[in-house]
């Protein structure tokens, strides 16, 4: 029998080998064994390694790089089909690139079996399908089946051995989950009073309202005190002005008395010197006129000061009136903005209702297509051998779809009945009913995983291509055979 090395030397032309190596060497992420990675840093080195492998062992080349080859490039290896190992790799690669209907069906069966095997593994581990993990992935679904029958206050309490930072983080995550549930409830048209978390927020809102009222009362008291202080200051200023006026009058009287005394002295001097007296009288008259003018000027200044004070008071009153008018205008603008926001919300609700109607029509079409696929799969599964008796059939897909549809209808029908008493009351169930609800929720989560809807949390490509999961069903078959053997004894 020819070895792979001999076949590689005889079957492939140098031109084909050179083209294949040239194209693959340009790929930066091409796989190389650890021992060769240091010598495969540039395309020329990679090309030399690929040419050497092609000339030595074609089967290993196909095993490593067959998935990178095109259909035309695979035809170059048809001359080597007499080698069993090379032929097996060629058939395997072509079945992946251009699968037949039988191969597609076989592949779907294998994928279902591997997903079920991985499902059993996740169930055994106990983490992925724990209640907290499932609630984190599907908060609204958990609420409809289980959460609305539980006491929400317990989720925010500190747990034994838990640090305060961990408690705060958990409360933050809980608030995010509640927000998601409320958003889904609004989308489905649940009344605002029946939204989850309203009974918890009601007490907080009352406390906030009381605090706001107290703050408003304190502000009013402070404003009254400020007004009283301003009035007292104005009264003190008026008293000071009156005192100043009295002092000025007294000074004027004293000046007049002094002037009278001077006049008497001048009269005595006039008798001695008449000429001098006349001159002095003229001077005195001039001085009196000046004094009178000064007095008049002082009185005018006082009147001007009083007028200025009155004008300042009027300006302050006008400013206060303007501020009040501005506040009224701001309130009117806020009311107009609120009305506009309400109109926008109504428009958004109408758009959401139209989107929901379109989604319902699409879901009905998908259900009809899935029913047809399920009937075809049932006919094909009936012809499989006993080794495929445990394979998942299309009915699982229909069950999860119907369960999800029923679940979306529950808020509007029977599930909404629990909330009719108001958001402040939590519906209670017996322990057996509670377990039944939890089992239903867990079953739906299992089916969602099998249908590939957990792609945000799991890499289905790794699961579907994990050949080690096939051993799970071999072990199951062996266990069943042993049980049957010992049962017959």
UniProtKB/TrEMBL annotation:
Sequence ranges of Basic and acidic residues compositional bias: 402-411
Region annotation (Disordered) ranges: 193-431
Comp. bias intervals (Acidic residues): 203-382
Stored InterPro entries: Ccdc97-like
Xref: PANTHER family: COILED-COIL DOMAIN-CONTAINING PROTEIN 97 (PTHR31840:SF1)
Protein name: CCD97-like C-terminal domain-containing protein
């Amino acid at each position: 029998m020819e070895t792979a090395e001999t076949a590689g030397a005889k079957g492939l032309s140098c031109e084909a080998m050179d083209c294949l190596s040239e194209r693959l060497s340009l790929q930066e992420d091409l796989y190389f064994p650890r021992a060769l990675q240091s010598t495969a840093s540039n395309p020329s080195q990679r090309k030399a390694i690929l040419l050497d492998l092609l000339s030595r062992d074609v089967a290993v080349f196909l095993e490593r790089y067959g998935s990178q080859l095109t259909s035309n490039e695979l035809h170059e290896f048809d001359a080597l089909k007499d080698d069993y190992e090379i032929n097996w790799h060629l058939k395997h690669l072509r079945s992946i690139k251009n699968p037949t209907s039988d191969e597609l069906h076989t592949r779907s069966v294998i994928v279902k079996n591997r997903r079920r095997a991985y499902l059993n593994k996740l169930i055994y581990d106990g983490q992925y399908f724990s209640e907290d993990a499932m609630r984190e992935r599907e908060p609204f679904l958990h609420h409809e089946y289980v959460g609305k029958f539980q006491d929400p206050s317990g989720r925010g309490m500190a747990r034994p051995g838990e640090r305060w930072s961990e408690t705060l983080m958990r409360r933050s995550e809980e608030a995010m989950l509640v927000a998601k549930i409320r958003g889904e409830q609004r989308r489905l048209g649940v009344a605002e009073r029946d939204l989850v978390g309203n009974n918890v927020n009601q007490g907080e809102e009352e406390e906030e309202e009381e605090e706001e009222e107290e703050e408003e009362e304190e502000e009013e008291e402070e404003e009254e005190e400020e007004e009283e202080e301003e009035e007292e200051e104005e009264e003190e200023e008026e008293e000071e002005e009156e005192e100043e006026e009295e002092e000025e009058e007294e000074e004027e009287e004293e000046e007049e008395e002094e002037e009278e005394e001077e006049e008497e002295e001048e009269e005595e001097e006039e008798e001695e010197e008449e000429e001098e007296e006349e001159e002095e009288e003229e001077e005195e008259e001039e001085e009196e006129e000046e004094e009178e003018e000064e007095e008049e000027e002082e009185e005018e200044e006082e009147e001007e000061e009083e007028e200025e004070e009155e004008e300042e008071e009027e300006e302050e009153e006008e400013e206060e009136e303007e501020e009040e008018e501005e506040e009224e205008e701001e309130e009117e603008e806020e009311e107009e903005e609120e009305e506009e926001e309400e109109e926008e919300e109504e428009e958004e609700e109408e758009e959401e209702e139209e989107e929901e109607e379109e989604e319902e029509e699409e879901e009905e079409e998908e259900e009809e297509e899935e029913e047809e696929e399920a009937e075809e799969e049932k006919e094909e599964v009936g012809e499989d051998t006993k080794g495929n008796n445990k394979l998942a059939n299309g009915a699982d897909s229909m069950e999860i779809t119907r369960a999800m549809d029923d679940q979306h209808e529950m808020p509007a029908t029977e599930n909404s009945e629990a909330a009719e008493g108001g958001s402040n009351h939590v519906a209670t169930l017996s322990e057996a009913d509670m377990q039944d609800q939890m089992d239903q929720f867990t079953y739906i989560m299992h089916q969602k995983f099998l249908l590939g809807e957990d792609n945000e949390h799991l890499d289905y490509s790794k699961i579907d291509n994990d050949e080690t999961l096939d051993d799970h069903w071999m072990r199951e078959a062996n266990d069943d055979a042993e049980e049957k053997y010992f049962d017959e004894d």
